Amino acid sequence: MRKAVSIAATVALLGALTACGGGDAESGGPVTLRMTTWSANPDHVKLFDAIAAEYKATHPDVSVKFDALPFENYTTTVTTQIAGGNAPDIAWILEGAAPDFVASGALTPLDDSIEDAADLAPTATALWKQDGKLMGYPFSTSPFGVFVNTDLLKKAGQTLPTGDKWTWENATKVAAATAAKTGKQGLVVRDFDYKDWTNLATVFRGWDAEAWSADGKTCGFDQPPMVDAMTFLHKAIFTDKALPAPGVAADFFAGEAAMTIAQISRASLLKEDGFAWELVPLPAGPSGSYAVIGQGGIGVLKKGKNAAAAQEFVKFFTSPANSEKLAQFFPPPRQSQLNADTLAKANPLLKPEQLQDVVIDGIENGVVKPSHAGSAEINQAVRSGLDPLWKPGADVTGVLKGVCTAINPLLAK
Questions:
Q1: Burial of residue 109, with CB atoms counted within 10 A of its CB: 0-12 exposed, 13-18 middle, 19 or more buried
Q2: C-beta separation of 351 from 150 below 8 A
Q3: How far apart are the first and last CA of the chain?
Q4: Distance CA 76, CA 70 (A)
Q5: How far is Cα 109 from Cα 130, in angstroms, rounded to an integer?
Q6: Looking at per-residue confidence, does 275 or 269 come out higher?
Q7: d(CA 243, CA 225)
Q8: Are strands 31-37 and 90-94 parallel, antiparallel or unpaired?
């Protein structure tokens, strides 16, 4: 049922936006802007509220309400709101949905709403441009790294592999040994949970595997690099017990796992009096070292009721000063701020070398998680196609061929 709702919402959004003009005219009186987000993290909310309060001090007629929506159904919920005439004024947009939002006409260009736009890294804005215009501001360009519970490793008599020894093979060996010795879990791909397959890009890119070709027209799941990567992953889950099996929940930040793949925004979940930890880049795969980036963009919705006021708030929210504040959780796209000194001021929990190795080098060398037009339908098809893989004895090659059979017609649209 969720698949049907997701597809219907996206189709309704595209149809509504191409057929109609903008939202209601602004009254000129007091305005309450609604900005949808996918984070209810108290530290994130506190920072957003502080920025909104600072804005209200000089714009007393403008209030900002941050509407946190569940992550799993975030895009579906936003598109349903738009199609139903209840569009937010501002929306955070996941990288996977960016092609649909940018191409559909849903967003208002932001070129005049961003201070010092020349400072934005071209690699960070590529996904958010159409015909040379900036349709969304990539407020977060955040590489994935691996958080390691070094106390748990020590308890299991394990040490963290370093340098050339930090590979997927060695990482899963340590994770499996630690899980077996401590009764905890090994390595958790956070937010995957056998549902959001795009987070597995943090693993399969180590084999130089791709979900589809660069032009988005050819499926890559049945190609040798992906078959090798998924074979490795399947063995790590069901044979080596290095990753939690389906249905097993483990929160690294509650001390329930040895390692987790996550972004630096998750560092806020670490407790000052908790376990000792380390943050390192993704392990090298057979194709060498690599980095994977998750992006979040801010867009002003044409169908919102307060587009002009929303653009003004976005200009303030994305200013260099506020970008530096947001860098505590969300690495900025501003080249002038992508240095260890600036990021260290906003991230006191992280060491400068961690920020350099994971964040700065990752942004410079990384690739963004998979995205494609029609992402809702494609992602559901991939998820359903991969379901038979998540059990012992699965035919990895056969399953992956089935994924391509399911999505090739969608890629060709």
A1: middle
A2: no
A3: 23
A4: 10
A5: 9
A6: 275
A7: 21
A8: parallel
Quickly tell me which residue has 């002009």 as its tokens: 308
pLDDT tens digits for 370-407? 999 888 899 999 999 999 999 999 999 999 999 999 99
Tokens of 253: 């930040």
Q: Which amino acid is at 89?
A: D
Task: Tell me the C-alpha distance between 221 and 398, whole Å.
Answer: 10
Chain center to CA of 182: 30
Which residue type does 387 have?
D
d(CA 28, CA 26): 6
**Tokens found for residue 129:** 């441009």
Ranges assigned E (strand) in 251-389: 257-262, 277-280, 292-300, 367-368
> Cα(200)–Cα(160) distance, rounded to whole angstroms?
22
Look-up: residue for tokens 């090739």? 408
One-letter identity of residue 412: A
**Which tokens belong to 324?**
């530096």
What's the CA angle centered on 64, arms 88 and 32, to 5 degrees? Answer: 70
Distance CA 282, CA 124 (A): 20
Q: What's the one-letter identity of residue 220?
A: G
pLDDT at residue 264 in the model: 87
Could you tell me which of 123, 95, 281 has the C-alpha nearest to residue 206?
Answer: 281
Count CB atoms within 10 A of the CB of residue 8: 15
